[in-house]
Amino acid sequence: MKKIAILNFQYSNHNFGAVLQAAALEDACRALGHEVQHLDYIPKRTVSLKGRIGKLLRKLGLRKEFKPKKAGNEEAFERFRCNYLTRTRRLISRSDFFLIAAEFDAVVVGSDQVWRPEYTNDAIAYFLAYVPNGVGRVAYAASFGKATWDPESYPSLTDQARSELKKFKAISCREQSGVHICKDVFGVAAEQVLDPLLLVDQLFIDGIITRSSVVQGSKLIYYKLDSTVNFEEDLEAVSNEIGSDAVNIYLKGREFREVPDWVAFIRFSEVVLTDSYHCICLALRFGKKVIFCPNEKRGQTRLDSLFNLLNIELEPLELELKTPMYKLVAPDDIETIINKERLRSREFLIEALTI
């Protein structure tokens, strides 16, 4: 048994996929016989000069205070973490990170878009710069979120990340494009593996569903990260075509769903309409019909890579819509393909954690 630490976005209070993939990776590592904890490091948000000026103007009453509507029940995500994650104490500084990381045999960064700088407040931390020498470094299904990495956009970070990545024992990315970025930009070898939600055993997923309060499935569900007026109108058209009201599994009124309920809604549905990577992972795992809404803002590359890996084709809906929507057409042997990739991904993790 080895002591393994994991670093990712487990601290999210609005992203179902972020907390679920964190729990899935912890479970997968523990299933291999290791003692596992998540490093509870939440990088502090940095405020730009423009942001600081705006805050001052609002404080002086020279600019109107803007308070966007927020969804409630963020506690739902903490309840899930309490049930499914083992965390270190809260790490509040780089030196704190260093001292706690020194207690482990290895640190695993991933999954999710941990190597997308604009999604982090301390990008170099996710290249494990604060891990002391002598502690193994592994990347599992780490994602850049985009198809390319522009060194000119991150000149200092690029050099730092290149130096840190060369210290890793094993590197894997969630997307094939990430494998190319590792090779072409950072000069390190990587391989493509499955997201933890496709890697983990079915018993883990079933265990989450047993905690759900959902007692009845819905024919059509939707999980849209960035809704618009056009989308709402198109959703009604899709609902009419399918002959079922669409149930929002993101929010119930103005509150987030409980995480087990979110999973159960997908499991007991017939059709899933979404722009979410992790929602699609679960829908495919459950064999559901999927209607996909491309969302470049969130990162289309990761989904293109998944579809290519699993031989999934996109077929436009035969409806007049303002929002692009596609049916996912999976091959008849998709379960066989997933099982093959699952075995290969597990072998990567086993070898990477053999210290």
Describe the structure in your own words:
With 355 residues, the chain is of the alpha/beta class. The protein has 2 domains: 3-202 and 339-352, Rossmann fold (3-Layer(aba) Sandwich), CATH 3.40.50; 214-333, Rossmann fold (3-Layer(aba) Sandwich), CATH 3.40.50. Helices cover 39% and strands 17% of the residues. It has 13 helices and 15 strands. It has helices at residues 16-31, 49-59, 75-84, 94-101, 155-165, 176-184, 196-199, 202-209, 229-242, 259-267, 277-285, 301-309, 334-352, and strands spanning 3-7, 35-41, 87-91, 106-109, 136-142, 170-173, 191-192, 220-223, 246-248, 251-252, 255-256, 271-274, 289-292, 313-316, 326-329. The strands form 3 sheets. A 7-stranded parallel β-sheet has the order 3-2-1-4-5-6-7. Strand 5 (136-142), helix 5 and strand 6 (170-173) form a beta-alpha-beta unit.
Q: Which properties best describe this structure?
A:
355 residues; Rossmann fold; 2 domains; seven-stranded parallel beta sheet; six-stranded mixed beta sheet; 13 helices; 39% helix
Quick structural summary:
The chain is an alpha/beta fold and 355 residues long. It has 13 helices and 15 strands.
| H/E element order | EHEHHEHEEHEHEHHEHEEEHEHEHEEH
> Going across the major beta sheet, what is the strand order?
3-2-1-4-5-6-7
Assembly level: single chain
Unreliable segments of 5+ consecutive residues: 47-51
Secondary structure: helix percent: 25-40%
Q: Compute the CA-based radius of gyration.
A: 21 Å
CATH secondary-structure class of the largest domain: Alpha Beta
The helix-and-strand class reads: alpha/beta
And the CATH topology of the largest domain? Rossmann fold
Q: Estimate the mean pLDDT confidence.
A: 93
Strand content: 15-25%
Q: Can you tell me the CATH architecture of the largest domain?
A: 3-Layer(aba) Sandwich
Distance between the termini: 10 Å
Principal-axes geometry comes out as: globular
Largest sheet: 7 strands, parallel
Number of helices: 13
Number of domains: 2
